[in-house]
Design a protein that fits this description.
Distance between the termini: 26 Å
Number of domains: 3
Largest sheet: 14 strands, mixed
Shape: globular
Bound molecules: coenzyme A
Structural class: alpha+beta
Number of helices: 11
Oligomer: single chain
CATH class of the largest domain: Alpha Beta
CATH topology of the largest domain: Aminopeptidase
CATH architecture of the largest domain: 3-Layer(aba) Sandwich
Helix content: 25-40%
Radius of gyration: 23 Å
Order of helices and strands: EEHHEEEHEHEEHEHEEEHEEHEEEEHHEH
CATH superfamily of the largest domain: Gcn5-related N-acetyltransferase (GNAT)
Length: 399
């Protein structure tokens, strides 16, 4: 594949990554971009697969690239194919000339042609990604508390230590939990590998909660000694029952003689903390990931909706990059599913960026209207509120 674009004045060429010298060059650029040690990004490139990288050239020189992680994301109880974008990097001497935006725009056009409905990424700068049609879609929260203040003593279930090397065991439990949470991933194998693999001096500990033949959850963690005390880092967790949730806490509390603090990833409304006697758990970091609708019809039809809601939303969407998303659409929702037809009255008007937080439910239609992201009639606002209602979208994986 070789596509050429002229953006501003310089000429960029977009292509797949194959030649060993290009792999080498991209690895060096990404090492420098992400402040990695030499060769670190080459390992990353191989773990994701060369075929999932795209590069941008100027005057035949590779000047940057990105990775496309093809996975799934859960929306309204349905798994939607999702293209995660990662490792966007441009060599410093080529920055500021439109290389990154050209790379993103080409990648989005390619993904649209392939039928990918949505894309998600973690932004180092929102400005660049907004320019490509992404907007805030959901959150990732890091929580922390003193192990001494957990104070959950009851442990209804046993915990069984198991080897962490096989993600399949955990994935089966994980899949049962995540279907109900908007934004959770059907994870890329590289994300699972990062969770279960020991890095440098860390040991990864993994436990099933409940009996091995009927597990009700799991916890995967590592321990760290820092200048400010000892930390138990929960790399991943799942609890399917209240007994598993109680056992999760009491098990962690049993580390309190040596471990000062526990950290875990969850949503801003982390329901695990409801089991704690006091509000001693605190969010210590909060990031918002961004989402782009690549194919409006496929994205709206592929997700699920609240089962009791029935309604028709007349949208008018503007997308300057992907013309197929431009225009009027009717979203008809019934029995938890949506159907999209073209035309209609265009009663809720927004650009492709505004559609992202509406789609994910990160903000209500009223909030989006108040911040200038959409304009709508009273009736359309009410219908959109019912259709896109849901628990705050969250995704505990960084990529
Ligand atoms: C971020 C990065 C990819 C931008 O590359 P670039 O080729 O300079 O970006 P572009 O020239 O295509 O910029 C496109 C637009 O984004 C803006 N932009 C680019 N980097 C930005 C930044 N760090 N902060 C704010 N705006 C930025 C540009 O001003 C431009 O907007 P304009 O056309 O309205 O002036 C590059 O600085 C980089 O590789 N950084 C290190 C790695 C990194 O942080 N990657 C992002 C990971 S999510």
């Amino acid at each position: 594949m070789l596509l050429t674009t002229k953006l501003m004045s310089p000429e960029f060429e977009y292509s797949t990554l194959a030649a060993p010298e290009d792999v080498n060059q991209l690895g060096k650029i990404l090492d420098q971009c992400f402040i990695g040690s030499p060769g670190q990004e080459a390992i990353y490139i191989n773990s994701i697969g060369l075929e999932n990288f795209r590069i941008i050239r100027r005057d035949q020189q590779v000047v940057g690239g990105l990775a496309i992680l093809r996975m799934g994301q859960w929306w309204g109880g349905q798994r939607l194919p999702m293209s995660g974008i990662a490792a966007v990097g441009i060599a410093p001497e080529y920055r500021g000339d439109g290389a990154a935006i050209a790379l993103l725009q080409h990648a989005l056009k390619e993904l649209h042609n392939q039928g990918s409905p949505i894309s998600v990424l973690y932004p180092a700068t929102q400005y660049l990604y907004r320019k490509a049609g992404y907007e805030q879609g959901g959150s990732l929260c890091f929580w922390e508390m003193l192990t001494d203040s957990i104070q959950v003593k009851e442990q209804p279930l046993p915990l069984k230590s198991i080897a962490s090397s096989n993600p399949q065991v955990f994935d089966e439990i994980y899949q049962q939990q995540v279907k109900l949470t908007n934004g959770y991933l059907d994870r890329h194998p590289a994300i699972w590998q990062r969770i279960v693999t020991t890095q440098e001096k860390e040991t990864v500990f993994a436990y099933l909660i409940g009996t091995p033949d009927q597990p009700q959850g799991y916890i995967i963690f590592s321990q760290e000694r820092t200048e400010n005390g000892t930390i138990l880092w929960v790399r991943d967790w799942a609890v399917l029952t209240v007994a598993a949730a109680q056992s999760f806490w009491s098990f962690i509390a049993k580390h309190r003689s040596q471990i000062d603090r526990v950290r875990w990833q969850s949503s801003i409304n982390d329901y695990l903390t409801l089991l704690l006697p006091e509000q001693t758990a605190k969010v210590f970091s909060h990031k918002r990931w961004m989402l782009r609708l690549i194919d409006v019809s496929k994205a709206l039809e592929g997700r699920g909706y609240p089962p009791g809601v029935q309604g028709e939303l007349h949208l008018e969407v503007q997308d300057n990059l992907l013309p197929a998303n431009n225009g009027k659409f009717i979203l008809s929702v019934a029995n938890g599913r949506g159907e999209v037809t073209s035309d209609g009255r265009g009663e809720l008007q927004l650009d492709i960026k505004g559609l992202a937080p509406l789609y994910t439910g990160l903000f209500t239609p009223e909030q989006l209207q108040l911040t200038g992201k959409l304009t709508a009639t009273e009736t359309a606002l009410l219908t959109a509120t019912q259709i896109f209602a849901g628990v705050g979208p969250t995704m505990p994986d960084f990529f």
